[in-house]
Amino acid sequence: MNYKIEVTLDDVNHILSATEQIEYVNHSPETLTFLYFHLWPNAYQDRNTAFAKQQLFNNEDKFYFAKEESRGSISGLDFKINGQNVKWELDAKNPDIAKLTLNQPLVPGGRITISTPFQVKLPDSFSRLGHVGQSYQISQWYPKPAVFDQKGWHPMPYLDQGEFYSEFGSFDVRITLPANYTVGATGVLQNEREQTRMDSLARVTAAIKEFNTEDLAFPASAKATKTLHYKQDRIHDFAWFADKRFHVLKNEVVLPYSKRPVTTWLLFTNRVADQWIGRAHEINDAVYAYSLWLGDYPYSQATAVDAALSAGAGMEYPMVTVTEPEAIIHEVGHNWFYGILASNERKHPWLDEGINSYYEFRTKALRNKYAGMVSSEVNTNAFGKFLGVDDLPPAAIDNPAYLSAVSCGLDQPVTAPATQFRTLNYGTIVYLKTAQLFQYLEKYLGTARFDSAMHTYYRQWQFKHPYPEDLQAVLEKSTGEKLGWFFKDLLPSTTLPDAHLQTVTSSGGSTQAIVRQTGKLALPVQVAALDAAGKTLESHWTKPGEKEQTVTFTASGIDRIVVDPEYVFPELDRRDNQSRLGALFPKSEPIRLQPFLSADRIDQKQLFVAPSLGYNTFDGFQLGAAFYNSFLTEHKLNYVVMPMYGFKSSRLTGLADVKFRIPAQGFLRKVELGVLGQRFANFHSIAPSLTIHNRLHNPTTARQQLTLAWHYVQDDFLPDFHAPHLAYQLSTQNAVAGTQVNLDVTHFRYTTSVPTFIVTPNTPEEGFQEVDFSPTRFRLSLENWFKYRPEKEIRVRGFVGFMADNDYSRSPYYLGLAGSPDYLKQTPFFNRTEMFTTSQGSSAAIRQTDRQDGGFRNGVPVMSQEWLAALNLTADLPVTSFAVYLDLGRVQEQDKLFYGTGLQLSFFRNALQVYFPVAGSNYASDLPKNFKDFRNSIRYSLNLQRLNPFRLLDELQ
Ligand SMILES: [Zn+2]
Prior knowledge:
It is a single chain. By secondary structure, this protein is α+β, with helices and mostly antiparallel strands. Helices cover 17% and strands 40% of the residues. The protein is built from 17 helices and 52 strands. The strands form 9 sheets. It has a 19-stranded mixed sheet that branches. Strands 1, 2, 4, 5, 6, 9, 15, 17 and 18 form a 9-stranded mixed sheet that branches. A hairpin with a 6-residue loop joins strand 7 (87-90) and strand 8 (97-106). Helix 4 (282-294) packs across helix 6 (349-364), helix 6 crosses helix 11 and helix 11 crosses helix 12 (447-461). The protein is globular and about 110 Å long. Zinc ion binds at residues 330, 334, 353, 356. GO terms for molecular function: metallopeptidase activity; zinc ion binding. Pfam families: Peptidase_M1. This is Peptidase M1 membrane alanine aminopeptidase domain-containing protein.
């Protein structure tokens, strides 16, 4: 396929005007009657494109709220084939895909010339193509045929998350623009004059001592224009980046095998110029290291450009990459995995992003051992020491970033297509998990054997479209090993193996270790004999496919046997991986108290500790500590014990939360058996529970959670009760709208003494009698919200509750009190003792409410033993950070519509909300009598679950 494109940039109206001519050769063995074309600028035309919809599910509302003039599109198309008009139409679903029906069938080996003019209205920077002022990122910009390969046509709409698949060809591109622009582009610049200009810019940049990071102004565009001419063979895309402010650094790297020099260019503005200078060597590092481990870079130049990009830290194009300075190695590395080995990135993102990340970390490790996604952040400084990870191999620090997702059932198969990953997983699974698994494969095969096999892969598949099975075939043939356990078992799996040392025995100068693996997978794992100083004396790998294996060591002076000493084996629990010879308890490691969090270790069990602080009016200030055994990665058994001391009540308070994870599969992502015990203020409670979470298959899956619990509550002022409780929650949301449904049923059982006249109204004597009660409460709420503009939303909540067996219930429904009944003790309250007696508290502690039941934000002390219905409306005000609210409610017992309205302020992700009632049924004559009346009606709610660090991962997903 040979492209000829001539394009002119209009930098006043941000429009490209171009003509394109493509020589299209049918290299397939099939006769073609039509062609698919990509018109990707149309992805930015409106809110209905695949790109626009994906943005919403990735929680990005910038494009959704963009003005018409900020959007983009392609127009002026007039396709001709061999100079003749041709029938073409836009895809019904995707306006960024077109289908051209050929006038004559194109036979194998046949050749046609397709031509068209086109205009691109450049969008603002929402993804990859766009402009920020007069800084231009021109990518995915021209009409481009889709790939037709042995699996057929691969048309694909443009997406932010999920990349591309393109045919190789030669490009001849002429770009006309004002003369004072500097351009970084795919291909080799042909204009001698511009080459001289670039060289002189490079000399100027090299002489700059200090960059003025404040100065980001665009100089005026030159009246005169210039036409830059670029040519290149054997590439599959062409991108260019133009800016009048670019500084230029020019360098050279000599390739390891051919000794051919490659010119490297860095183009950057003042914005983060110092970081570019500091990382200037990294472009050369990447070109050299990837060449060394895979094969020489085939082109004569490589360029990295700094530019505003709204799709991650960088984006790769052949020979040119647009990137933040910290991603230079990764993006330049894509020349191999994407550029030269041109796999289908949309379908198999791990083949380019994942394997490229493996080489990226390996390249960075040439200068710093701790070079991974996480280890580069924590291990180079005092922070690493504080976390107690400074003596661990890098993999021990990097692996938890994906193991944490695995541990709570949020894993997805490495091999899934790009569109299936939820945003966070796209980074942790596609990039990091793949990279870590390839490191494991490298260690298993041995670096030399692995490198040699990858050299073969590069040689055989360069300038082609390899599929996963092609990579497996080359690696198997080259190494002589069957690797189905890696490609077919491990990569597509969301369960992991778990290896542990069963027994270790010594006899007659040799040591036998029995290694067992549980779970579905049985993968090779390294087993090593270490001396007392931790040095490896001897090590062996177990064979794949065998769950129990005996490993024999002949070395002398063995102190301990360790499974997976380099932390590369993809397992969750490493605490059973070590056995000390001759120790009284060979498999019990010392327990270390570690502040806050750390990485899991083979040689130590860890107990984490963090300070805790509390307050309520009964206990006063409480000070204590939280002890827990897991934070980022959940274990089978997870616990938090938080003892505190109440300085006013002079007694021990606190909570203990123990959860046992039951292996979950299929629809279930997480099943937990737990017990929560609490002792605060005037109550103590214990609640065993079973909680089930559904699996989140893709970004659009709704979250569901079902909890079955049994609460036992002992309250100083009320009869003890038992309450079986069933709760179901469903929530779904995107960047601009969401829905949440809550349904729960609570069956209370308690005995209390009641005046006998209530039991039998005709009894003359007064007295008390013990009576059993068992009311059941049903509650259903539905909440919907949508944004009417960025950061501003409208919420509607409806609630109904009714009681079965309502005899003298002590658990009625409330419209809204100053304080909440909170029967099941699920919300931390400052004051639990006064809330039943006061509707307008005078102290701040009893003005707390939790928005249960009627959800009234005004203190309307109305309750029901029968049924209650409420409607709550909230609308953020456009200009201030206040929202207005209106609550409406009815109860069975009173023939009246209650209401409350006022203003609301929210803080800390809605964890704290403060309500200012302006009018409503809480006031004697619907309005406050005076300022004091108004002031005393101010109330607030606290939802600390929103800030719970133990739910961080769940919240992020
Ligand atoms: Zn990448």
